[in-house]
Amino acid sequence: MTVSMVKRSVPLVPTTPAWACVDCMILLANGETDGNWTEAEKAEFLARFEAGTADCEVTLGMMAEYHECADDDGEMADECDCEEMTFSWSSCDICRSNLGGSRHAVTFWVKP
User: Fold this and answer.
1) Cα–Cα distance between 81 and 89 in angstroms, integer?
2) What is the pLDDT of residue 26?
3) Residue 101 lies in a domain
4) What's the chain's Rg over C-alpha atoms?
């Protein structure tokens, strides 16, 4: 997965991988939320999302060095599933929702 970063006067550095719920992943990928939500549900979710990303940038995926499938040269397997947990009860690292479900790797980019 390639991600383009906006050029900034202060460079951002990546953190260790974090895990996002499906709703946060969809918002990061598409810039929109599930169309079946009420306005109140959407507003609540967006407030939690914005609070979780206030001091950083967030991108989908993880840096190559965190892939368990990488060999000694840093090359990853052709069919890698390191960036997805098919089910977890852990809370989402962005919106803090504790609903069970799949989790997807994201990288937080913070000021050094």
Assistant:
1) 19
2) 92
3) yes
4) 15
pTM for the predicted model, two decimal places: 0.77
Residue 5 lies in a domain: no
In a domain, 51, yes or no: yes
Q: Would 32 be classed as within a structural domain? A: yes
Total domains present in the chain: 1
Low-confidence ranges of the chain (pLDDT < 50): 1-5, 7
pLDDT of residue 2: 41
Distance CA 53, CA 45 (A): 12
Range of the domain at 41: 13-110
**Helix (H/G/I), strand (E/B), else coil: 47:** helix
Size of the chain, expressed as the number of residues it contains: 112
Quote the CA–CA distance of 47 and 18 in Å, as a whole number. 19
The CA distance from 21 to 101, in Å, is 7
- Residue 92 φ then ψ, to 5°: -65, 135
Which pLDDT score is estimated for 74? Answer: 63
Tokens 């504790």 map to which residue?
Answer: 98
